[in-house]
Each structure stands twice: as structure tokens, then as C-alpha cells.
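Re: your question from the hallway

Yes, I did run it. Sequences:
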Amino acid sequence: MRPKLELLDKPFIERILGEAFELISDPGVRVAPYVVELLRGAGIKVGDGVARIPESVARRAIESVPHEFYLYDREGLPAVRYGGDHVHFDPGSSCLNILDPETQQARPATSADLVRLVRVAEMLPQFAAQSTAMVCNDVPQEIGDWYRLLLVLWYSEKPVVTGAFSASSLHTLLELLTIESGGSDALRRKPRAIFDVCPSPPLNWSEFASQNMVDLARAGVPAEIVSMPLAGATAPVTLAGSIVQHAAECISGITIHQLAQRGAPIVWGGAPAIFDMRTGRTPMGAIETAMLDVGCAQVGKYLGLPTHAYMVAGDGRLIDAQVEMESGISAVLGALAGINMISGAGMLDFLACHSIEKLVIDAEAIASAQRLIEGIETRTESLAVAMFAQTGLQGDFLKLKETRELFRREQHFPSSVMDRGLAGMDENSHGVLGRARDRVEELLSGYERRAIDSGREQAMIEFAQREGSSAGLDGLPEILRPEYAREPGLI
Amino acid sequence: MPDTFSAMRQTIIDGAPDTASALAQEAVAAGVAPLDAINNGYVPGMHDVGEQFARGQMFLPDMMASAEAMRAAMAVLEPELKKLGTERPMAGVVVLGTTKGDIHEIGKILVGTMLTANGFRVHDLGVDVSGEKFAAKARELGADIVGVSALLTTTMRNQKSVIESLEKAGLRSHVKVMVGGAPVTRGWAQEIGADGYAKDAMSAVALAHELMEQKLQGAAAGPV
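Structure:
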């Protein structure tokens, strides 16, 4: 039996959906001029930038969304399965700061930090996908979006959760992915990346979000809606009310997306949070935030849609008991909820900071969560009697063939990040942070980059040099040294 | 009279705009000087609210209600001040806004409310405001302080471009810049060359007073 967490029963979900359909029709949804004609063509009334979407049109759009799709790795093998109760994790994304590995103080992240994180995440099987995790402050802001993706594609073979911060940068990102995939048909057939697109709460599909939805649908590249109701501030204060708003934002987004291209892959996702009435901050580690994530995902699942949530992030500013308690609890809840992609590992301080040391600790929480959802299985014909028949009351189970055969499947063995009393742990007085640092070094030393197909690699370099030089980029940080910038191939 | 002032103060703490307005009207009718009502009744209420909020004993919805009550009282008392040809002494002129690309404004509204309650004249430019707009408004109003808010890590960078726009407009030496917002830190404020960082609405008031003092001292010292 697969253990499962549900916070809403069927009548409650129906009620949530009923109100969500009501909201998208009245007061309606704010949309950008880019999609007005598209919506009007489907019989949706749009006036003063507000679309009033009839339930029937929205339901038809939901019906045309694929219930399942894959993201592929560099080799073209399916690696992430969106749909059903499949659960995957990826590191949090788009962070400006990193906790410096030496000082453990927050500082602006650089391309070297991103590469370090990508290498570590590449080595951890807990992460089915990478993310464009950090904003590289050593790269000009206007090319930041595609440069982050370039670095991830360069150093990773896993699928990537990414996103564009503007309408124009989406096209550059898609161009880069097309080169890496070997053409736009290949990208459409076997997408390597999925793009987060965020509506602005409440119920507003801004110019660039509207445009991203349409352009991604037409390119056949998966989109992931990241709806962010902040309960009590930009959304109703009740968890149920915020789940309604989340559903309304997702349904209206799906309507725009499916009208642009029916059958294009899209994910019911989000980063909802409560709004702390003492500080005005949005705690990602609050239990109510996790409850919102689980509730929102449950509504998406009820509609048969692939799901996403932002979890495994803590709010403290240091790697400490608070941050890891918050991250561990939400990893377990997200896995039990059967959410297809759970983003956020490695992040702390209200998503303002990333930490590679936290990422490896979170990986342990994720591994435990993954073990949990495997559940308690029947691995032997007789559960215990046959084993007792062999040992009698002597209880010598360690000698049994079954023990040797089955213990690896029954027990998860955490890495050296966790103190389970292994030899060497006694003298190890530097606590979990020290063990996490050692683990990061261990993973980095085991990492080896595999080159991309040489033709594509060359094309990626040429693309990056062309786009980078127009923004005044000197060399290609972490790929080509400045002195070789004009000599592709020397890495 | 102290009873009246204490009742006024309580309307702010309770977040009761109707009573705040009614008490202001009664006070005017009874011949209480409007400035006394403001300074001895309503402003101390706002101070209490700010202090309780800073201690975590009051919450944002309570504070919004208190601000509403303050506005209701001021709507009665300000026209009376004008009639008398007097003005409330002004602590400084502040131009506030949320940075370009960012549409979040709750924190900024709170800062504006607290600054207004503390005698600053605040002009709120709203959300998604470019550096050029900040500079133009600062020039138009002869602002002492520009306050720039950002809620997102991605839009926080645009706080820097506000400072650049003020420099470009030749205003930077006259205008103090304070920054705030969820992802903003003291370190970030220093890095982009802002004059101060405030972590919440109450500390924004203290910072604004401090910046005004610095500004006056700078002016007294003359150009160097």
C-alpha cells in the first residue's frame, strides 16, 4: 500500500473548483493584450484587460491537457515522469545569494557557485532534475536567464526546471535548448527542460507571463504554472480561499495555454505561502504553507493533471535545527501528497539564499521521504512465520538468507551526512554542517563532466559567444577563459 | 482633556475609523486645537501601535486598521488646520515606491503609513516604478528621502538603478535613499550605495529621522 496524504475530500474539492470557475468568470482574470485575440476567438469576453472565462471553455481546455508526459535526459532517455503519483525533487531556483561554503554568510552568487551546485546535484540520485538554481551575479543581468541554462546544460545530463524572466529571453532560452537537443522537432519530441511561468496574484496573467504561456505551448515545450497566492495578503486569508485562488489562476492559465496549442504539456503547480501577519514575510517552512501545497496539488490531481509545488525550503538564515526541521517535514508531506515535481531543496531564508551544504542535507530528508512512500511491502510469502521456522526462539535472524537478500530493499542507508554511529563519527565533533561540507567535497571529487556531442557543443559555444559579446560578456565564465573567448573549442 | 486624548489614542489602537472620526469632530466642535488632537491624541496611538507591532503583539491586519483610523481622524483635522492657517510641522518629504518589475506593495504601504503618522509628507508612486520616475518625482517635490521597496530577489537589483537614476539626474547629493523589502539586507543596501536599510515599518521611521538628521548636519556643514 502506497502511503498517501490527503487534506481535502471530494465534496470539498468540488466546492473549491466551483468557486474557482466562478472567479474566472466573475470578476474574471486580468490578461495581457498579447492574448486578447486568442481568447476572443474562443468566445471569451475581454474588456478593459479583464477576461471573463466561461466554465465550459475552461473545462474544454482542461480536458485537452495531457495527463502524463516525460522530461528527457541528455541521452534522450525518459528521466522525469509528470503525472499520476510519481514524485521527483529538484533544487530551488533563481536564487540571488548563496551561503558561502567557508564563512556560512550570505553573499551574491556567481557562475562558479552555480556550477558547484549543479555538479553536486548531478551526483545525488535524490534529484531527478536540475534547476537553474542561482542568478549569476558575475554575468550581465540581460543575459542572465540563458547563461544560467547554458551552465546547467553544460555540466548536467539531467532534465532541467528553468524559466524566463522576460518575454524576449524565453526565445533565447528556447534557441539554446533547440541547439542542445539537435533541432526544434527533437526538442518538442523529447523536451529536456520545463519552464516555470508565474501569474501575479491575484488572478493576473501579466504581459510576459501571458506571452510565455502562448509561446511555450506553440513550441511544444512543457510549461509549469507557479501560482503564488499569499494567504491574507494577495489572496484570501483562509487556506481554503487561497486554494480556490490557486485553482482559478491555474485554470485560467491552462485556458490561455491550451487555446494557443491544444494538447501541449502543462503542469498544475505553485509556490503558495501564508503571509506572516507579524512580519509581512512569506514563510516557506510554515506548516500552513505545506498544507497549501498539498491542498493545491490535490485539486490538480483530482482533475487528472501533472502537479508541482515549492517545498523542502526553510526560513532560518543559517543551517540549523529550524531550517532542517522545516525542510524535512515539507519533503515528507510533499512526497506523501504524490506531487510530481517538488522544487526548493537547498534554499533557506524565505527563498533568498541557496546553500550547497543544505542541499546535501536536504537530500537525506528526501531519501527518507522517498523510502517512506515505498511503504511497507510484502516481500516474502509468509511475513514472519517462515523465518521463525528457521530460527525458532533463538532469534538468530542475522544469519538468515532472507535477511541478506532483503535488508538492502528494506533499509535506506543514509550518507555520511547523517550520524548513525559509523566508525569515525565519534571523533567527528564538527556536527552536521561539517559532515555536509565533507560530503560536498566528496561528491565534487567524484564528479566528471561528460562532453556533449561535439557538433552541438560547438554550436552552443558559438551561440553563447554571439549572444554574450553583444552584452559585453568577457569570455564565457566557467566554460571558456576570456583569453580563449574567440577560439571556440579551447576549454 | 486628557480623557479625550486617551480616547483618541484608543481609537487608533483599536483600529476604529468611525470613532476616531467622531471624536475628532467632537473635539473640533468643543474648540480643541486640531494640532493638539493630532499630537496628543492620535499620534501617540500610532506610536503605541508601532511599538506593539515591533514586539510581535500586534499584527499587520490590526496595523492596517489603525492606519485607516488615523486617516479618518486626519481627514477631519487637516482641513481645520488649514482653516486656521497652520500646518503640522513636517519631518521631511519622502518619495516611496516599489521597484520596476515588482507589483508588491503591502510593506511599502505600511512604511508610508508609519512615516505619515510620524509627520513625514509621503508621496507614494505605487508599484513597478522606474528609476527615472523616482528621480523625476524627487526633483518635482524637492524630496529629502527616496524609499525603494522590492519583494522579489529578481527585482531587488532594480533598487540600484534608482540610485543610478538619482545620480544621473544630479540629485543624489540632496536625496537620501533608503531600501527595504523581504529579500533586502543591510549588506545589500551597502553594496548598492543606499544610505540606509530598514527591516520593517517601525525601523523605517527611525531610519528616516536619522537620515533627516544626517541631511541637516550635512547642509549645516556646507559643501566639502
